[in-house]
Amino acid sequence: MKKTSLYQFFRAREGVVMTEFLLCLPMLILLLFLLFELARLFITSISLDLAILKSIQRAKNTPNVNYQATLATELAKQTNQLSPFFDARGANLSLKFYSNLDDFISNHHYSYANSKPLGQYRVEYRYQPFLLPGFLMNFTLIREVLFVQEHERF
């Protein structure tokens, strides 16, 4: 009698689909969160690119300006308009200025812009995941742009 009930237990098919679904559910949720984070990362990256280009264009075309402060202000303005996911306060800005292309190639840079027609703008932004833990998505978005400073040319 016990042999028959044990045999029936292993041959029973009730609940198999539910069990398989429950085993796959955590992976499906993780995949959904991962897709959301990747979409958010791409939106943030595109917003960062556009905000940086617009901010640099405004800063480089303004005469007698503190480029670092102008870039930070303009970047904050642009990012508020472009994406609710991006916070400009998390961005690290660095500027280097060069007299000519030879200085740029040899990395002989200046920290001030007086009569330095080339400006290298670097923005580093640490991406903060929203749904996934930070160790799964640990990104630093880095953008470097070399511009001709309109008002610093000889």
Question: Nutshell version of this structure?
Answer:
With 154 residues, this protein is of the alpha+beta class.
Describe this structure in words.
Helices cover 49% and strands 18% of the residues. The chain contains 4 helices and 3 strands, in the order αααβαββ. The chain is rod-shaped. It has helices at residues 2-11, 16-60, 67-82, 101-105; strands spanning 91-98, 118-127, 139-148. It is α+β, with helices and mostly antiparallel strands. α2 (16-60) runs antiparallel to α3 (67-82). The chain has one domain (38-148). Strands 1-2-3 form a 3-stranded antiparallel beta sheet.
Topology at a glance:
Elements: H1 2-11, H2 16-60, H3 67-82, E1 91-98, H4 101-105, E2 118-127, E3 139-148
Antiparallel strand pairs: 1-2, 2-3
Helix pairs in contact: 2-3
Number of strands: 3
- Report the uncertain regions: none
Q: N- to C-terminal separation?
A: 101 Å
Strand content: 15-25%
Strand-pairing-aware structural class: alpha+beta
The overall number of domains is: 1
What is the H/E string? HHHEHEE
Strands in their spatial order, largest beta sheet: 1-2-3
Question: Helicity, in percent?
Answer: 40-55%
The average pLDDT score comes to 79
What is the approximate shape? rod-shaped
Give a short account of the largest sheet: 3 strands, antiparallel
Calculate Rg over CA atoms.
27 Å
Structure annotation, total helices? 4
